[in-house]
Amino acid sequence: MREKAVILLSGGLDSCTCMAVAQEAGCELYPVSFVYGQRYDREVDCAKRIAAHFHAAEHLIIETNMDAIGGSAVTDRSIDVPEGDPDRTDIPLTYVPARNLIFLSYGLGFAERVGAAHLYIGVNSVDYSGYPDCRPEFIRQFQAVADMATAAATERGKRIVVETPLQYLSKGEIIALGTRLGAPYEMTTSCYNGGTEACGVCDSCRLRLRGFAEAGRRDPIPYAAGVR
């Protein structure tokens, strides 16, 4: 019997790669995506396409109101998305407070409900935008909480393992891995501005473009005129 894996699927490049990694591991796939008040709908549409591509057993879409918290250019439309600096070390305005903590908690509950042994998240501590909830320290602490938080672990000895296969890879290495595994990057989106054409200048776009350059490949999604 195949093991089950829940994957936090944003519709972006990293989470799409995690879907490919979990599939390669032989898991039955249970992606979960979120409508959380982000300023763009495109990423959820992309997540639906990716889930269908991988023949997901179930694709859960959860609505939650993180724009009520505010404080991020991703959820607060009064804050402009800044132009990116892929080498930044400070925390940018696109950081959404506690987002990975909240999403992982939902994912953990979903994993317990479907009997999944694995919970994948595409966090990265090499090429990332300074987010504190992408660090391995955060994942270790969440794993400790997860081990105490579910009936599956505390009563039945069925630990749900948080999997971070991209944690120590550069963006170029992530793209090389996903390409080898057949990840459909043409279905993904990364732009914080969320248009049908990626802006090419926000943090996420610049990291993505640099990664494709490092991997020696051309990004298959469309960009605004003159970006490439």
Polypeptide structure, described:
InterPro entries: QueC, Rossmann-like_a/b/a_fold. This is 7-cyano-7-deazaguanine synthase. The protein has 228 residues and is of the alpha/beta class. It has one domain (4-186): Rossmann fold (3-Layer(aba) Sandwich), CATH 3.40.50.620. It has 7 helices and 5 strands, in the order E-H-E-H-E-H-E-H-H-E-H-H. It has a 5-stranded parallel beta sheet, sandwiched between helices. Helix 2 (42-53) links the parallel strand 2 (28-35) and strand 3 (60-63). Helix 6 (171-180) crosses helix 7 (203-215).
Task: Give the SSE layout.
Layout: E1 4-8, H1 13-24, E2 28-35, H2 42-53, E3 60-63, H3 99-114, E4 118-120, H4 136-149, H5 151-154, E5 161-163, H6 171-180, H7 203-215
Parallel strand pairs: 1-2, 1-4, 2-3, 4-5
Helix pairs in contact: 1-6, 6-7
InterPro entries: QueC, Rossmann-like_a/b/a_fold
Pathway: Purine metabolism; 7-cyano-7-deazaguanine biosynthesis
Family: Belongs to the QueC family.
Count every helix, treating DSSP H or I runs of 4 or more residues as helices: 7
SSE order in H/E notation?
A: EHEHEHEHHEHH
Strand order in the largest sheet: 3-2-1-4-5
CATH superfamily: HUPs
SS elements, strand count: 5
Please indicate the percent range of residues in DSSP E strands (runs of 2 or more).
5-15%
Structural class by helix and strand composition: alpha/beta
CATH architecture: 3-Layer(aba) Sandwich
* CATH topology descriptor: Rossmann fold
Mean pLDDT: 92
For the record, the count of structural domains works out to 1
Query: How far apart are the first and last residues' alpha carbons, in Å?
Result: 46 Å
Ranges with pLDDT <50 over ≥5 residues? none
